[in-house]
Structure formats: C-alpha cells, structure tokens
C-alpha cells in the first residue's frame, strides 16, 4: 500500500518536471507557479523514494554477487547487503514520516495568549517570565513579536498577555505549548522559605486568513475606550483602545497596545479571526478528539503540561516525561530541545497510529 502510493507520487513528480519545461507552461505564469508549488511539495518524498530504490538495487546486486562468490569475498558482499538492509529500514521509517498527513496550519503564524491562573501575584510574575521566555524564543527564530493586549500588575507581573507572532512555521514550533504551566518556587514575599505552587495558562492559536473565517460586521460590536495600564505614562488619555464583541460566539477581544485606534482595530481583528478559526475548527474536530489524545497532550488549555521547579532548576514536561536542568537558559528562550522532543514524540505516535489502521 505504502509503495503503491510512493510510486504514484514519484510518477507525478516526474510528470510535473516535464510539464514545467513545456513552452506553453512557461508562458502561463499562474499555471507555472501552481505546478512549481505542487512539485516542491512532492520533492522531499520523491527524492527520498529515489534514494530508497537506489539502495534497494545496491542490496539486490550485493546478494546476487554473493551467490556467485565463495570465501572472504562472499562474506564481504553479505556484509554489504546487511548494511544496505539496515539503511533501508531507516529509509522506510523516513518515508512513512514524510507520508503522514501534514497539519495544514503548520506553516502559519499564530496568536499566543498567556493568563495568570492560581497563585495571585506569584502567578502574575510567572506569567510575565513566560511572556519574556516566548519573546526570547521568537527573537532567536526571527519570528515577529506583536503585542496586542497586556494587562500588567503594579508589582511587575502580568495577568494576561495576547501577542500576534508572524513567521513561517511559528505555529508548528509553538503549538505544543498550549496548556497549564505550573511553577514551584519560594516567592520573595515568603518569610519562612516555603515553596508555593502557581499556574499559568498558555493558548497557541493558528493565525487565520481572511479566506478561513468570514466575519459579518453586523455580528460585531465595536467599543472604544481609554487604554489602561500600571499607571503613569502608560495610561492613554484618548480613546484609542478597541474592544470587539462577536455576538454569535460571545468571543470578546481587546487591544490597547498601540497609540493608534486604527492599528489597535487591525490587531484586534487578527486575534478575533484566530479565535473564531480555533472555535469552529474545535467544534468540527470534536468527533475525532479522542484519537488526538496522546503523549503530547490534547492541546487543551486546562491540561497541566509542564512544571518549572526552581529549587532544583528542573523543567519537566509531563506529556513525554522529559526533564531538563537548565532553568536560566530555558527561561531565556532556549526551548528547542524541549520542542524538538515533543515534535518527535508526536511523529512517533502518528506513525504507530498509521501502522494500526
């Protein structure tokens, strides 16, 4: 079954190469772009399958020669055939991975939402640390970081933060962060040195395009108000902040980060589109939700996914049982080791699932 599919893909890849070289295709730029895009999507699979077939030929040739030889030469040829077989096994796994259905949202940007949970001001302080952590990660990967709404506390914490993140693949990298993050540490205000536990909720939503979600203006109420903040210069004296209320779903989005009413409105609509996209997709996918529960979690923001233990400088992801002892660098945005492990676990789960089907 898999190889039949691979043969079809390889044939289509070759056909596209031939089509792209035709004069009539070269003269039609729109058609040329569409065919080029399709061929680029098939290229990793087609080239990997081509390499697999070459290795298969090497193995068969070594076995055929071994039948004609004796002694040391026969042993060498059999060793070569065995090495080819081991390489073929690894290549089959790679091909199975390449054939797995792609998340249609992986190439998109995303909306990141961080909210302080249980723990009062300590939770708000940790929410701000997570905000800075993700900001550092985005800077390392050159994703654009656009705050939409920040609800800060007077002690330097953050009750809520909403950020738009632009960059190809931002959602693919950050989607595993959705859930409850738990922190265990001794607050600065704790006189007896007792460890407190607080929580922060993180939600990562794929950025929606205009074509994904149609928003009817009659379903929206737009309210203008003055920006609020921790005080001083952060308080805006004019009504530049925007609140959007979507009547059919009850979703409310506020944006007060910019001094321009127009910019705040644009950012608020981006967040609203992302939330509506997530809302409608979640409803449509509810029938298959049971199949998505796995060692990398459901993505449900009520699910505890990770614990940050400060006394032991340990970060533990409960979905895959991985612990890292690098609190300082992790909170500075060095998340790749954790995110790579989560992505591998997700791939392994899906490979096992496809094998059972």
What is the helix content?
40-55%
Structural class: alpha+beta
The proportion of residues in beta strands is 15-25%
Number of helices: 10
Count the E strands. 11
Q: What series of H and E elements makes up the topology?
A: HHHHEHEEHEEEEEHHEEEHH
- Taking strands numbered 1, 2, ... along the chain, how are they ordered across the largest sheet? 2-3-1-5-4-9-10-11
- State the low-pLDDT regions, or none: 230-237, 287-295
Average of the residue pLDDT scores: 86
The profile of the biggest β sheet is:
8 strands, mixed
How far apart lie the N and C ends? 12 Å
Net shape: flat
How large is the radius of gyration? Answer: 26 Å
Description of the molecule:
Helices cover 48% and strands 20% of the residues. The relative contact order is 0.10. It is of the alpha+beta class. A hairpin with a 5-residue loop joins β2 and β3 (158-166). The termini are close together. The strands form 2 sheets. An 8-stranded mixed sheet has the order 2-3-1-5-4-9-10-11. A 3-stranded antiparallel sheet has the order 6-7-8, covered by helices on one side.
Features:
10 helices; flat; three-stranded antiparallel beta sheet; 357 residues; eight-stranded mixed beta sheet; alpha+beta
């Amino acid at each position: 079954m898999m190889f039949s599919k691979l043969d079809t893909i390889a044939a289509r890849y070759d056909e596209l190469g031939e089509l792209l070289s035709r004069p009539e295709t070269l003269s039609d730029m729109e058609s040329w772009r569409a065919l080029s895009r399709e061929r680029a999507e098939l290229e990793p699979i087609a080239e990997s399958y081509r390499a697999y077939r070459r290795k298969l030929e090497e193995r068969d040739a070594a076995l055929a020669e071994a039948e004609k030889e004796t002694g040391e030469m026969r042993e060498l040829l059999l060793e070569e055939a065995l090495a080819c077989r081991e390489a073929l096994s690894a290549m089959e796994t790679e091909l199975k991975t390449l054939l797995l259905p792609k998340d249609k949202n992986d190439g998109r940007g995303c909306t990141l939402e961080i909210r302080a949970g249980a723990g009062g001001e300590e939770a708000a302080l940790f929410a701000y640390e997570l905000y800075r952590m993700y900001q550092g990660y985005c800077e390392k990967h050159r994703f654009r970081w656009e705050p939409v709404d920040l609800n800060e506390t007077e002690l330097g914490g953050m009750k809520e933060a909403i950020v738009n993140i632009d960059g190809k693949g931002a959602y693919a990298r950050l989607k595993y962060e959705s859930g409850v993050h738990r922190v265990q540490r001794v607050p600065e205000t704790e006189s007896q040195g007792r460890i407190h536990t607080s929580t922060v909720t993180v939600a990562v939503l794929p950025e929606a395009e205009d074509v994904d979600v149609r928003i009817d203006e009659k379903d929206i109420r737009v309210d203008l108000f003055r920006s609020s903040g921790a005080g001083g210069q952060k308080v805006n004296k004019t009504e530049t902040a925007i609140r959007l209320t979507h009547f059919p779903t009850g979703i409310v989005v506020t944006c007060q980060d910019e001094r321009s009413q127009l910019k705040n409105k644009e950012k608020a609509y981006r967040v609203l589109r992302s939330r509506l996209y997530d809302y409608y997709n979640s409803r449509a996918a509810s029938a298959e939700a049971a199949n998505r529960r796995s060692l990398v979690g459901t993505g449900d923001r009520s699910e505890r996914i990770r614990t940050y233990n400060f006394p032991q400088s340990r970060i533990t992801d409960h979905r895959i049982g991985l612990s890292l002892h690098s609190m300082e660098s992790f909170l500075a945005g060095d998340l790749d080791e954790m995110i790579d492990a989560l992505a591998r676990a997700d791939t392994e789960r899906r490979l096992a699932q496809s094998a059972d089907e």
